[in-house]
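In the current project phase, the collection of sequences with tokenised folds has grown. A representative record is quoted in full directly below:
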Amino acid sequence: MVLSPVENVIARIREIAGDRVSQGQADREAHSHGESWHAAPLPDAVVYAQNAEEVARIARICHDARVPLIPFGTGTSLEGHVTAVKGGITLDLSRMNKIVEVNSEDLDCTIEPGVTRLQLNDHIRDRGLFFPIDPGADASLGGMASTRASGTNAVRYGTMRENVLALEVVLADGTALRTGTRARKSAAGYDLTKLFVGAEGTLGIITRLSLRLHGIPETIVAAVCSFETLGGAVDTVIQTIQSGIPIARVELLDDVQMDAVNRYSKLSYAATSTLFFEFHGTPRAVEEHVARVREIASENGGGAFSWAENTEQRNALWKARHTAYYAALALRPGSKGWSTDVCVPISRLTQCVLQTKADIEASGLLAPIVGHVGDGNFHLAHVIDPDDRDLLARTYAFNERLADRALAFGGTCTGEHGIGTGKMRFLEIEAGEGAIETMSRIKRTLDPNNIMNPGKILRLPENSDAAKLF
């Protein structure tokens, strides 16, 4: 019997990975999608990789046979990043989860890509250290690097872009390379680390990461403040940042999202536009920063601060924030979520948020607003019925207006979620023809057979099937 190219690849990979190759329907379905609603074609097989050498051998086999290879971490991405647009092999990296070394004196660590952020923080907590990038989900750190994740702490500690020191990467043809070192800066050659951070698995597969760590602050306090208006809440954020107050976290929840969070997490805050704050530092510094932010909030229609000072209270508060997406879905049981985000310069944030809120109401959509507004980034969780074609059309049209609005304000079509299959058209508008062609040249050079997570970021001619997901 003559095997098809894909069947032949699977047979060859079985010689390497044995029973860690699965063609079971449940495994393929579980690895066909992230957290987004988008249609999810199934991969032909799922392979659970054990080490970098194995990843390289599998990549070489797929490259030679021109079979797609899709890296998979924990499946928490939101823009169709892990969808097998053209079938092929999904490479699950979750078993590559060793913490290789922690260098407390240098405030860095080296890990495998399947290590999750909670796993790392549990491991280093007793050393007085933590890794600050917190997108909410317990995502794999390899996946977080691939999507250039950020999260609630980004306003103070930056995103994955600022916190990845070095990578080990396997290219499409199986070539392994190291980018960067553990040094805090370098002027040596092209910055290949930044090239792969945010490439969404389209240029190579991350097999090891060196990351910056931070000392656990001496004092941490969190607070909740309700506002009379949405504009007052956003203005408070802008003025706080412009005043140079080194706030660690500041999260916006509009009235709809706050009502959903109250119901889902059994809280009792006012169902109005609200900010969640967190302050880090010495006791005296935190006291001074809190006093200044309270004054700014009061001038913008903010009420009294409700405090979460001990670890248990803070964890409960941030858990409520991190489950905001599921709280939104609970507003309409049986619905699906279509999450999107944009990011604008903070001076334009109030305009952008208020115009977006008005657009939601005029469009008759259920789309709570929540965001890491300290860096100009906010999200919407559209609560949809995928079978309602009229609702999908209105949602898609709204998202086009949202992206256009962010670009008109000098912003970006995505501050955090990435491009995936969902925002390729918006990237073309934002980046322009020259940048898109340059990205395409890089893609074709490193992955000439277009096997690395095809159908994501760039609408290459051979990626046109990605459009069918909409």
Q: What stands out?
A: The first helix runs from residue 5 to 17. The chain has a mean pLDDT of 94.
